[in-house]
Predict the 3D structure of the following.
Amino acid sequence: MADLPRFCIFGDSHYACLRQAEAEGLADLSGVELEYWGHVGSGFRFLQVRDGAVHPGDDKVARAFARFNAKRRLVLPAADFDAILVMGARVYVWRMFISVLRALESGPFLSQGLMRRMLVDGFRCQVGYQVTAGLAATGTARIFLAPVAYYTENPAVLAELVTPGMQQMIPERVPEFWRILQEAAAEDGIDLVPQPDETVTQGIFTGAEYAVADHLAKADYEHRNAKYGAVILSRVMPVARSLARRG
């Protein structure tokens, strides 16, 4: 165990799908010394990175984070790990992509430079992204970020928000959006994990087979199940396992 890379999964309610993937045996998390550190999303509005660690906004929130961590950590020091996967963490791309597609459809006024600025500024202004960038800025652990997945497929939402013209642009433009965000994240020292293609339907929605149980009855179109968690972990674990343990 002492020689294994130290790996932390950190997130809001969206990280539950990763814990479920491990619990249900859908993901192999061997080869690392694993910790989870997370809590429901509202506390993420007040997280800050200070002195190389993520600090909750108050003692109550800190105790809530500690409750779900095996070592009862009140803060998350980046230097205690070789890799950290930030999952969800209130970092959203779906509505941002919809907005940019709508702007592109409306006419030729949106230059490549302005499109990039809309995407990058919209990404970097989110608190969860800023916390992730703060962890990366420590220069210690390798930092991965998997944003909140696209909205679960829903014909009514598709008809309301995505016009036929936008649908035609999706195959070319959405991969470009991800490349722009990956480049910006890399500038901030972050390995961005785009939503895996096999989980996507209609180019910009998440397939219903990756939704939480009874998502229609619950009207929960954002949270994911263990199957989705396993796909995300399949993208990150090979790299996390390969890292040398520092110290």
